[in-house]
Amino acid sequence: MGVGDVKAWLRSASADAVIRRALASALIVGPILIVINHGDAIVHGDFSNGRLLRILLTIVVPYWVSTVSSVQATRAARLAAATLTLREAEVHSRNHAVSLQLGRHE
Question: How many domains does the chain have?
Answer without folding.
Answer: 1
